[in-house]
What does this fold into?
Amino acid sequence: MLHLKNIGILSTYNSATDSFNSLKNCSIDIEDKIVTNIGSSNNNGDFIIDCNQKLVTPGFVDAHTHPVFTNGREKEFTQRVSGKSYEEISLSGGGINSNIKGVRESNETELLDIVMGRMDEFLSLGTTTIEAKTGYGLDTESELKSLRVLDNIHNNHQIDIFPTFLGAHSIPDEFNGDADGYVDLICNEMIPAVSKQGIAKFCDVFCEVGYFDLLQSSKILKTAMKYNLTPRIHSDEFSNIGGTKLASEVQAVSADHLMEISDNDIDLLTNSDTIAILLPGTTFFLGKEKYAPARKLIDRGVHIAIASDFNPGSCHIKSMPFIIGLSCIYLGLSIEEALKAATWSGACALNEQDRIGSIEVGKQADLIIWDLDKIEQIPYNLTSAPIKNVIKAGEPLISLD
Ligand SMILES: [Zn+2]
It folds into this structure.
């Protein structure tokens, strides 16, 4: 048994009371990966970690990432800061398509090593579970390869990965001018192959002008559902073309981005189980000013999560502590709202809230021991993540001996 003693404050969403709680001066017992007791310190256990009166929170559940790529796009970053927009760079042959070559040409071991290294960083920043999308292969074999890489890491790395098939990330060059032809390939060949492979849990679509229109997005998500892939959608990022309406129609588990969401679409989310995943890192990284209307969403009863959107182009940010800081500064969230959105609501956006996302008896022991005294210090420290240890499924990241 692992015993965490001398916890100064345990801050977590609590599903029994549906509130964010802070418990002072307590301890946690962990057996067989599971939290078995939360109480006062008793100093019993085969292994004891002294938390020295510091803060403990759940591990982060980052429900929106794109980590399966080889090359970075720092050259584009330079172009952007000298005045070109993301859309202009994309139209001139940069953007997502510049990553396709890298993934297609990389062998599986190379790709695995690169993505595995990224997962080490995520875990050290307190992210214990991650949703990870494909979408830089865009042919059947490269997409299946990307999913095998994610599955391999899930099985051999402490971090838990929930894979999403995102063949509909962009139109690859060979289908230039024939988006419908690519949609046919996705629906007739890729989705059946992905389903047969059995790794992906979700199917996502980039529903956006210049990528996949509403009809195409609808066709892809409805085909995916026939193959038991749960739909999620990139919606209302640069323009509103009806993605959120589609999300509520297909009961997508999440509608993500939402900077351009309309009032009518907010009503649709209020009356659905679809979670709004907000990605303030992207607005920040692109130097834009329009963030998703988080306060309006929350005040009208929409369940929101926050995530990193880690990707090589529009948001090269892995740190959930930083995303929490951005959410407080730019989305107007309280620290409790931001922490709930980064843990519990992230788990809800993966349909895993019964198992992870909060520290409660009976749930998996995924948690962070901070070198901080209280949650207010997480956004206050913004760019640093003062973490002493991360416990994933009862296993400390930094070993005790
Ligand atoms: Zn994304």
Remarks:
- The CA atoms of residues 135 and 166 lie 5 Å apart.
